[in-house]
Amino acid sequence: MVVNFKVFKKCSPNGKITLYIGKRDFVDHITLIDPVDGVILLDSDYLHNRKIFGQIVCSFRYGREEDEVMGLSFQKDLFLASEQIYPPPEKREQNLTKLQERLLKKLGSNAFPFTFTLPPGSPSSVTLQPGSDDQGEPCGVQYYVKIFAGENETDRTHKSTVNLGIRKVQYAPSKQGRQPCTVVRKDFMLSPGELELEATLDKQLYHHGEKIAVNICIRNNSNKIVKKIKAMVQQGVDVVLFQNGQYRATIASLETQEGCPIQPGSTLQKIMYLTPVIESNKDRRGIALDGKLKHEDTNLASSTLLASPDQRDAFGIIVSYTVKVKLYLGALGGELTAELPVVLMHPKPSGKPKILHADSQADVEMFRQDTIDQEC
Prior knowledge:
Largest sheet: 7 strands, mixed
Keywords: Sensory transduction, Vision
Domain Arrestin C-terminal-like: 191-349
Protein name: Phosrestin-2
Strand content: 35-45%
Radius of gyration: 26 Å
Family: Belongs to the arrestin family.
Number of strands: 21
CATH architecture of the largest domain: Sandwich
Order of helices and strands: EEEEEEHEEEEEEEEEEEEEEE
Structural class: mainly beta
Distance between the termini: 41 Å
Helix content: under 10%
Shape: elongated
CATH topology of the largest domain: Immunoglobulin-like
GO molecular function: G protein-coupled receptor binding
């Protein structure tokens, strides 16, 4: 049986270095991250008196490109992995993947494998949605594989450079967490009794595009009147580079007066449904989105899962979600608010990896030079 497998390919501007990689999404399993592996093919002229290096670059843009004046830069590059690929180190272990074995056999003696290991806690690929009048690269965290010729790992004098964008992604856990539930109460200084709001979600973990059911129970033991109920999903973005880089944005909301006014001594129980999706937030500047490859559509950013709270100091953007329920009591009564944390992510793909047989055929996707980073 012949099995087709996907291979991504990109050449340097002078055609001397060609990069082959089997996938562009690398999964963060919290305790470890999928290794980035592939093969480079060198022109025969480049096998003499030259060194070829490879790097995984995490690029964090935290300001608009058009605001960069007088040498000011709003971008930081973090080199998470770096090694010399050619000439290959003598003591390097050759633990090749099936894809690398097939590519080396197909490409010949001028092909050389590489494998990079990302450190745990590396930030996920996130893009902050630009405004309609913004130009240049959007703010956010991007990754790319960089292959170049030079005398050492910091040499940038040669023109032979290949940059190919990749993503670091997280998938939803296989098990649900505890069911979110909270009870808040409000008493009033000059009147007896209290107002009680109980909010419960049907589960903690939701997949993108899934409807969130908010169960609300209101017990009005005060002499105030509840005039309106509002439920919303808020996205929290923490740009850890800045001390005050936290903000929230409402990405789905529903307001109702059904069952209102809730008179003193009355009880109301109802369910409100919210669906946070990118389609209703297309024009919202600063909304966090999952990192993009090429110019394809994306979705709201997935929740960031951390192995420990200490990792909040890592380089990047941390995304979280909260369901908020608010009761409006009028100008004199004020408001009563309940909040519940929720996790929004993609499910882990269920497809099993294909087994590569000896007669497997490669489906190669070729990239133009203008698809990523013009530094070459």
